[in-house]
Q: What sequence folds into this?
């Protein structure tokens, strides 16, 4: 986190040079980093709750950096509603656990679970914690604010996607002993994680804007990370968390390079994945995963997770074919994709030998459900990849995010209304008569 904060902070200094709100940005940025560090080091319920609330308060100032942009105000407003609900659930989780254990210390909580096992208050605490994390991680159906904060400066997006949203994954790993005693909490995580991965995976393919596509990618990745934690694969979730943070920070800070990539793609012409590769990629991915595991017998995971990983990495083995392409190019692409799958599997296998301080507790009952969901997702993505024109309605719904956020926005504004009023804290670059109103609370 310190590395990401330093890199994003240096980038922000150049990106926002000359902006009148730069000092305000620096203060809020420092507030987010300080709160995140306190959260990561906290060993008590009260400190955790205060730090997580501090992250939300400081982040709101970053999301509303451009105060004259209505969609930025709306996104921050929706996030505030979700944060308050998550805070209430976290307080409930802390109260139930504290009353049962007699202490707010996480160490005392682990010792109590080891000595006495599951109890009704602790299981209820785990459910409240799981729901709070679902809300804070921007999973379906409360994901909309994460997409709409693209109105904020690019460094804010990098910080949010690389170091704030995935804090929930860290907390799930931290509270693994508590979640292990509550099957209901684990089923909640599996359901929300798998559902988010499924829906966001379709939406991501329909987006053209690089920042919006990265935002939907984060929603899908957070869903997959929550799924991993719900299935009890905490070592893989920890590795996923680190990799996602580094990847998303680099992707947002280098988003401008997408222009060059688009030009190169136009020059090469359209190329669709070969039908044979779409059909055989899962089997090929599974073969590579099993081969690497046989060569590196350092750790293992349940049989159904081999299938989940093979389906998740199968698109790397898709072979794009265009008119005039030589067979050598197809073989090159295939071997490169197989090399990536082998490398990812090797890293995931070696992660089991690292002293990460977490132990896997596989949730075998939910494993086949996750495998079936990933198989259905792959089938849908492969079909849309090959025959997009045959499913115009599905593509239209995917592009609209299945209209989930529209429903949530209407509901949120109906339950907690807001009004539009002029915001004169920072003048807009346009004439005063044509300024766009900002969103304020009633």
A:
């Amino acid at each position: 986190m310190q590395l990401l904060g330093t890199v994003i902070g240096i980038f922000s200094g150049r990106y926002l040079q000359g902006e009148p709100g730069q000092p305000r940005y620096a203060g809020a940025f420092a507030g987010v980093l300080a709160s995140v560090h306190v959260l990561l080091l906290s060993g008590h319920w009260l400190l955790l709750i205060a730090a997580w609330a501090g992250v939300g308060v400081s982040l709101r100032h970053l999301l509303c950096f451009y105060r004259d942009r209505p969609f930025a105000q709306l996104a921050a407003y929706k996030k505030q509603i979700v944060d308050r609900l998550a805070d209430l659930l976290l307080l409930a989780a802390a109260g139930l656990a504290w009353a049962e254990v007699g202490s707010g210390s996480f160490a005392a909580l682990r010792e109590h679970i080891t000595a006495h096992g599951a109890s009704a208050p602790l299981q209820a605490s785990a459910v409240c914690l799981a729901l709070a994390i679902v809300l804070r991680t921007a999973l379906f159906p409360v994901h909309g604010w994460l997409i709409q904060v693209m109105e904020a400066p690019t460094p804010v997006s990098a910080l949010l996607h690389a170091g704030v949203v995935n804090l929930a994954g860290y907390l799930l790993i931290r509270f693994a002993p508590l979640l292990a005693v509550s099957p209901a909490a684990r089923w909640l995580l599996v359901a929300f994680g798998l559902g988010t991965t499924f829906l966001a995976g379709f939406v991501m393919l329909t987006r053209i804007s690089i920042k919006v596509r990265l935002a939907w990618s984060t929603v899908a990745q957070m869903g997959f990370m929550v799924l991993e934690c719900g299935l009890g694969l905490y070592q893989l979730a920890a590795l996923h968390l680190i990799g996602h943070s580094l990847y998303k920070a680099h992707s947002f800070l280098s988003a401008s390079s997408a222009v060059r990539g688009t030009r190169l793609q136009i020059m090469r012409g359209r190329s669709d994945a070969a039908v044979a590769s779409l059909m055989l990629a899962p089997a090929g991915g599974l073969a590579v995963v099993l081969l690497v595991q046989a060569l590196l017998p350092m750790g293992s995971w349940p049989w159904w997770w081999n299938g989940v990983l093979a389906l998740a990495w199968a698109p790397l083995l898709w072979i794009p074919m265009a008119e005039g392409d030589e067979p050598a190019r197809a073989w090159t692409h295939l071997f490169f994709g197989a090399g990536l799958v082998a490398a990812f599997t090797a890293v995931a296998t070696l992660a089991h030998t690292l002293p990460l301080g977490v132990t896997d507790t596989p949730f075998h009952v939910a494993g086949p459900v996750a495998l079936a969901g990933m198989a259905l997702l792959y089938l849908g993505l492969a079909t849309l990849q090959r025959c997009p024109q045959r499913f115009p309605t599905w593509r239209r719904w995917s592009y609209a995010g299945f209209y989930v956020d529209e429903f949530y926005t209407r509901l949120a504004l109906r339950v907690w209304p807001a009004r539009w009023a002029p915001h004169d804290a920072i003048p807009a670059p346009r004439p005063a008569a044509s300024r766009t109103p900002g969103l304020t609370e009633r």
